[in-house]
Design brief:
Layout: E1 2-5, E2 9-13, H1 32-41, H2 44-52, E3 63-68, E4 82-92, H3 102-106, E5 112-115, E6 118-121, H4 132-135, E7 141-152, E8 164-165, H5 172-189, H6 203-213
Parallel strand pairs: 2-3, 3-4
Antiparallel strand pairs: 1-2, 4-7, 5-6, 7-8
Helix pairs in contact: 2-5, 5-6
Bound molecules: iron/sulfur cluster (SF4) (3 copies).
One iron/sulfur cluster binds near residues 99, 119 and 141.
Length: about 220
């Protein structure tokens, strides 16, 4: 695990973002940790915090971001204010599929059915781990989209809550827009002793706000 522990924010990243890497990682940006640190450090939010909380924030008040390279979630994104989870959306080339079923066996989520002479991906079950792509012996599963699933509003403490999945695969630029929205929201409503996750209680309004600000 790699970690940035600033006086106002924490970013934890799994091994997938390290030099050594992880074979499961499907995140497209290995330098995401450094890029996020720079965005936050240069942001109006950081200048605001430097004035409002000169000596730093208590651990429960800090902005917490987690980066996981795949849905295994080793850096626990679902208990952070914001989580980036590497994701790749598979698509089957129906014409070339030999109906061998290897992809269905490789999928831990039972998200692939073999029917009508081809493999069919059930996207409502798919976690976008990308494991089925290299499993296909015919090379007939391709990458339709690569980016990040994003989750927001998680926390531990006296009233723990899992973060809400924002329901798409976002590009890195959309992810940065979502982060900036969160920083603006926090700055606007900042109060000492307030946990940031208090601002992210209502799942539907979280999704609507972030989707609007990510340009979706
Ligand atoms: S979350 Fe995935 S990519 Fe990151 S260390 Fe765990 S298994 Fe590897
Ligand atoms: S991406 Fe992962 S979860 Fe989705 S169908 Fe492929 S193996 Fe299954
Ligand atoms: S592994 Fe490839 S060829 Fe076999 S069923 Fe899946 S998509 Fe078709």
């Amino acid at each position: 695990m790699q970690n940035i522990n600033d006086i106002h924010f924490i970013i934890d990243a799994c091994r997938g973002f390290s030099k050594k890497g992880c074979s499961n990682c499907v995140a497209p940006d290995k330098d995401l940790l450094a890029r996020l640190e720079k965005i936050i450090t240069d942001s109006p939010w950081k200048r605001f915090m430097a004035a409002e909380a000169r000596s730093g924030l208590k651990p429960h008040e800090k902005l917490k971001i987690s980066l996981s390279g795949c849905p295994n979630g080793c850096s626990r994104p679902h208990i952070y204010d914001l989580g980036f989870i590497g994701a790749v959306m598979p698509v089957v080339n129906e014409a070339g599929c030999s109906e061998c079923g290897v992809c269905a066996s490789a999928c831990k989520e039972e998200a692939i059915d073999i029917c009508g002479g081809r493999a069919v991906i059930k996207y409502d079950r798919c976690l976008f781990c990308g494991q089925c792509l290299p499993a296909c012996p015919e090379g007939e599963i391709a990458e339709k989209k690569r980016g990040y699933r994003m989750v927001a509003g998680g926390r531990l403490g006296r009233q723990p809550r899992l973060a809400v999945d924002l329901g798409d695969i976002f590009s890195i630029d959309q992810g940065f827009m979502i982060l900036n929205t969160l920083l603006q929201l926090h700055q606007k409503s900042f109060e000492r002793k307030m946990r940031l996750s208090e601002l992210l209680k209502d799942p539907e309004s979280i999704k609507a706000l972030f989707h609007a600000n990510a340009g979706l």
